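To: structure subgroup
Subject: Chain for Friday's discussion

All,

I'm putting the inputs and outputs inline so they're searchable in the archive.
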Amino acid sequence: MKLVRVIESASLLCGWLAAAAFFTLGLIVGYEVFMRYLFLAPTRWVEEVARLLQIYAVFLAAAWLVARREHIRITVLAAALPPRPRLWLARLALAVVALIASAGAWHAGALLRFSVEMEQFTDSTVGLPMWLLQAPVVAGLGLASLQALATLWRSFLEPERLVEAADPASV
């Protein structure tokens, strides 16, 4: 149970980091608009840094969304089921999320290793190392997979939490 709490804490921390990244993204894009249209002096770095922040924010937020069960899900079938089958359907969905996120993290990790070995950089004025763009994909999907497994484990100890979260009427 301690490991589950560590995973949930890491997901929460990543959710806050994602929020900060989205906030910073808004600030620098606003700065770019201000500089470009008021002073006719566009920046060279905002576009790539904004792209980097967006990648970090999206993949850092993934585990937090899985923890809160706020990721995309289709509830047409689940809403028609009684609570017990709905619980097992939610568990199956978490297992599928864990499997897909694990596979994605694995393949992104292979791509990251290749980028490091080949010393790849972005083709832009900033020229960031490619691994900087690939690392959050590996970390975010890996943590999302762990969070799905932690939520699945917790569903056997506290099944009412998963049924309530899966109930579209409770949202």
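Points worth raising on Friday:
The CA atoms of residues 94 and 148 lie 5 Å apart.
Helices lie at 2-38, 46-68, 76-80, 83-118, 130-157, 159-166.

D.
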